[in-house]
Write a structure and sequence with these properties.
With 994 residues, the chain is mostly beta strands. The chain folds into six domains: 106 residues, no CATH class; 164 residues, Jelly Rolls (Sandwich); 190 residues, Jelly Rolls; 194 residues, 3-Layer(aba) Sandwich (Rossmann fold), CATH 3.40.50.880; 223 residues, Hemopexin (4 Propeller); 55 residues. It is built from 14 helices and 69 strands. It is globular and about 130 Å long. The protein starts with a strand and ends with a strand.
């Protein structure tokens, strides 16, 4: 919704519609009066009163849509010429309370000025242009709303001060605390949640208010979720606009309605009354009460998400799945071209009411051969393929898939057109088709979404449209959908990312397995399949490569105890496996369509209220626990007082008396044989259960990764050299330059890196480098301050390694100042001899080392190229060559996460994300950790030889200089000193270094 100011009264367009309708009715009444002059006066009056009642019904329907989920007002004696009408909406809406919430913190951050704070600016910039990202941030003080209150509706209003016609703006939840006085890109750039809460469409005009629906997010905050506010983020290239801040004359705010949600459908009665007192009534008892404002979604994804191609009759075996153009032609002979196009609809809530949908294609040819172009519904699935104007797998003029032919060459589609638009061939640009009925049918599951066939209706037409694979993003196909949801539904689509392992029945495949796979993929997940009869080793390998398991149509007998120690989260809809998963000792299968939510403190249910929740569109067999429930289980929802949505956290006590090795969820979804007739609320529970099942692994996986490679590489759209450090965001698949080694004139590859909490970078190179006036060798570590462009020697390898060839290949600085180190060769440090496949824990104060990771003991060969210790105790590492650890085989371009307790490895960064095969040399995960190493300062007693003779050796002098450079005080004592002198010296110092 867009408005020029705060609105009161009617919106102009609906009023015009109503006035036009009234005029037509008045004319009709007068006409009929003239034509039916012989009709009895009573019959004519009744008919006229009916017309007045119909006018009142239309006005009342419009009013109900404007009032959303309440409170509601009725129409009383609204005049219509000499007559009038009234209306009454009957619903069970209880008392309501309207609250206006102002923004109490706002700012904006910029990747182009990452250390700058913008908290006092009147305009908040939104930008996605030329690699520069700018995001407004808002936080609302919700203290006027009672905790756990039921939120009927929330409308967020923003004032557009500078237009951004280039593209839409997505709204995300902020995931970390901030204040407008200190928020910067460095501190907050990575702290946004993946799901999109709402969308602001492209804004072609400045000086207007725009609104979005934030009901579910405010409900979560009121339920206890940490309220860090929201941020606006665009991914449409060229977007550059402004929104007003709270310091301006048009500050952002929320309109909140608190109360009990009304039932839907409701009953609406309209009464028409003539001037002579004759009345007629109309009653509609299926009035759907829908949320306001409507939501707008504009999809313009790339070729990885959209399926589009063209079918070439003159080359009937050619596939064009990756062509950057979509050719459309109707010619004499056998020379027609048809266009196939399919958009994913996973970002639209399942129960959404589609109000309007339009397809927009960019015509780029500029010929003189245009005409009418029509959209038709495709009747079967097809395979996009990955070729361009060549024979290859995928759809062609003759084939729907590589192995299946079309029933009719050129594609199977409805003869009746959904929409038709006339194309002016000399005018390039976007052309629109209204495909509302088609999208409505898809979303209502009345027709399968197999996409659209675009056909030229005029002989001689030759047109070229941009495809989703075209390099100019703003000219790709667009689908724009306006939708709304019924009151009581959470009006956001399920959204996530990660790898889901779908456990299915190999011997008796269930059709819903395919449905679930497609559904999860539409939510953003990558789905891999596992057969229930596979052996334990196959289970283990599959779990190592995925984030969470979803048990679908699997046979409990086939699964057996293979999941008892599953190290990843398991989301289960098979009640027969409750005991094996430790959730409960039994199960029950009640029939129904709803659950009673009783706990909204949990992530899965935080967007709902403590009330009955319809999760299925019809009564089906659901699932609950039975017998004894696990002592540590958390019941989030019940059916008849028995747990139906139940979670068990990692480390909790399960129903078998053991400790849960990872998270477990029992869904109320019921047996897999039952079709998934889910409401959007039900789908959100499933998706949020998957997301919670991924657990803290997902949080760690979402951390940015700083890395270097053995050669130049491209990752996340960034091309960098072997002298650089790149920062990769796995959520957005975006790379940025973290350290420009070329600008710093680094002569060698970086092969070890760790970022400290103070922002300094600890690094080593494969050979001699000079950085910040310090020259170091491949056995050294330097502490580089990128702000001051200064460096200090942190670890002097020539002084500290005592034997073997030395070349530090990875480092991690612990909070206690110890160093986790790997070396490319067998060497001795701090009295410990270790190999290239080991990790040592080195105490630089005591000059002692212990074995942290024993490569030989776990069958790890080669040397460790990169190393980072996660907060959960797992180790992120890479190897110099193909290797195996914890049953996982990986390559030199991969990062793996290794759990040393469970001896289990999972893929952390897939090397296939690089544009070509690479070798990762160093890596750091997340923000800086560890302080200036080592911690202190300490008083150090340094025991040396020959103080009174020839003096300290060069090596001892280097050691003393290094320790003093860390801020410690060094006292020297000769190793031949008396016991009394030693006792006195030890008493006056903190640590002894020998």
């Amino acid at each position: 919704m867009i408005r020029p100011g705060k609105q009161t009264g009617y919106i102009l367009l609906p009023v015009i519609v109503v006035i036009t309708l009234v005029a037509a009715i008045a004319l009709l009444m007068n006409t009929e009066s003239a034509l039916e002059s012989n009709t009895a006066a009573s019959e004519l009056n009744a008919q006229q009163a009916q017309y007045v009642a119909e006018a009142g019904m239309n006005h009342a329907l419009w009013l109900a849509r404007q009032q959303g989920c309440g409170p509601y007002g009725n129409l009383t004696n609204e005049p219509l010429a000499n007559d009038n009408y009234s209306s009454t909406l009957t619903t069970d809406l209880g008392s309501t309370n309207a609250v206006t919430i102002n923004v109490d913190q706002d700012s904006w951050i910029s990747s182009d000025s990452p250390a700058d704070n913008k908290g006092n600016d009147q305009n908040l910039h939104i930008r996605f242009e030329g690699g520069v990202i700018e995001r407004p941030m808002f936080r609302y003080d919700l203290s006027p709303i009672p905790a756990k209150a039921v939120i009927l509706s929330v409308t967020a209003w923003f004032y557009v001060d500078q237009e951004h016609p280039e593209g839409q703006v997505d709204i995300h939840r902020i995931t970390a605390d901030w204040s407008e006085a200190d928020a910067t890109w460095d501190s907050m750039g990575a702290n946004l949640d993946f799901p999109v809460l709402a969308v602001i469409p492209a804004q072609p005009d400045m000086g207007v208010w725009v609104s979005v629906n934030l009901t579910s997010q405010v409900q979560a905050w009121v339920n206890g979720q940490s309220n860090f506010g929201i941020t606006l983020n665009s991914t449409s290239e060229g977007t550059n606009g402004d929104y007003n801040s709270r310091e301006s004359a048009n500050p952002p705010y929320l309109e909140v309605i608190v109360g009990t949600p009304p039932s839907s459908p409701a009953v609406l009665k309209a009464v028409g009354t003539l001037a002579n007192g004759v009345t007629r009534s109309l009653v509609r008892d299926e009035i759907g009460l829908i949320q306001s404002p409507s939501q707008l979604l504009q999809l313009q994804p790339d070729g990885a998400e959209v399926m589009d191609t063209y079918l070439d009759q003159s080359n009937p075996g050619y596939n064009n799945g990756i062509s950057d153009s979509l050719w459309l032609e109707q010619a004499s002979g056998n020379d027609d071209d048809h266009v196939l196009l399919k958009f994913p609809l996973g970002r639209i809530p399942i129960d959404a009411r589609i109000q309007q949908a339009s397809l927009q294609l960019y015509q780029s040819l500029g010929t003189t051969s245009g005409g009418e172009v029509s959209i038709h519904r495709v009747r079967r699935e097809w395979e996009e393929g990955n070729d361009s104007f060549t024979n290859g797998p995928g759809v062609t003029w003759n084939n729907a898939t590589t192995t299946e032919v079309w029933a009719v060459a050129g594609g199977e589609f409805d003869a009746a057109a959904i929409a038709t638009t006339t194309i002016n061939p000399s005018t390039t640009g976007y052309y629109d088709w209204d495909i509302t009925p088609l999208v409505q049918g898809w979303m209502a599951n009345q027709i399968g979404n197999h996409g659209m066939m675009i056909v030229a209706d005029t002989t001689g037409t030759l047109l070229r449209f941009r495809s989703s694979d075209h390099g100019t993003v703003v000219e790709r196909p667009k689908l724009t959908v306006t939708y709304s949801c019924t009151c009581g539904e959470v009006c956001v689509p399920p959204q996530g990312n990660g790898k889901v392992l779908l456990l299915r029945n190999r011997n008796d495949p269930d059709p819903t397995d395919t449905q679930k796979q497609a559904l999860f993929e539409s939510w953003g997940y990558t789905v891999n399949l596992l057969d229930d009869w596979d052996d334990q080793a196959t289970y283990n390998a599959a779990m190592a490569s995925n984030d969470v398991m979803f048990i679908s149509g699997a046979s409990p007998f086939a699964v057996g105890n293979k999941l008892n120690n599953a190290p990843i989260g398991v989301v289960n809809e098979r009640g027969e496996l409750n005991d094996e998963l430790g959730i409960a000792t039994g199960r029950a299968s009640p029939v129904g369509d709803s659950i009673d939510v009783i706990d909204t403190d949990h992530y899965i249910t935080s967007i709902f209220t403590n009330a009955p929740l319809q999760v299925m569109t019809a009564g089906v067999e659901l699932t609950t626990v039975g017998g004894t429930t696990a002592p540590s289980a958390q019941v989030l929802a019940e059916i008849g007082g028995i747990g139906a949505l139940v979670t068990l956290d990692k480390g909790g006590l399960n129903s078998n008396g053991d400790t849960a090795p990872a998270r477990r969820v029992l869904l109320p979804a019921g047996e897999s044989e039952v079709d998934w007739l889910m409401t959007n609320n039900g789908a959100l529970i499933v998706q949020r259960a998957i997301e919670w099942g991924i657990g803290d692994k997902k949080t760690l996986d979402d951390e940015n990764i700083i890395l270097s490679t053995a050669g130049g590489a491209t990752l996340g759209g960034l091309t960098f050299t072997d002298k650089d450090l790149a920062e990769y965001d796995p959520v957005t698949d975006n790379g940025s330059l973290y350290l420009d080694g070329v600008a710093l004139s680094l002569a060698q590859d970086i092969d070890a890196v760790h970022v400290l909490a103070n922002g300094h970078i600890v690094l080593s190179a494969i050979n001699t480098i000079t950085l910040g006036s310090i020259t170091s060798e491949n056995e050294d570590l330097i502490d580089y301050d990128p702000v001051a462009d200064s460096a200090t020697l942190m670890f002097d390898g020539s002084a500290l390694f005592t034997s073997g060839s030395t070349d530090i290949s990875a480092v991690h600085v612990l909070d206690n100042g110890h160093l986790l180190l790997t070396n490319e060769y067998t060497a001795t440090l701090g009295g410990l001899s270790f190999g290239p496949n080991d990790i040592v824990d080195y105490d630089p104060v005591a000059n002692s080392a212990t074995l942290f990771f024993d490569g030989d003991a776990v069958g790890f060969s080669g040397w460790i190229d990169a190393l980072h210790l996660l907060s959960n105790g797992n180790i992120v590492l890479s190897a110099n060559t193909t290797n195996t650890l914890g049953t996982l085989s990986f390559h030199s371009g991969d990062l793996i996460e290794y759990d040393p307790v469970a001896d289990l490895a999972t893929l952390y960064l897939d090397g296939d994300l690089f544009s070509a095969e690479e070798n990762i040399r160093s890596a750091h995960v997340g923000p800086g950790t560890g302080g200036d190493a080592p911690i202190g300062p300490y008083n150090v007693l340094f025991v040396v030889g020959n103080v009174g003779g020839p003096g300290m050796t060069a090596e001892e002098i280097d050691h003393r200089t290094l320790i003093e450079s860390w801020g410690h005080t060094v006292e020297i004592i000769d190793d031949g000193a008396s016991q009394t002198d030693f006792d006195t010296a030890v008493a006056n110092n903190d640590v002894v270094f020998t």
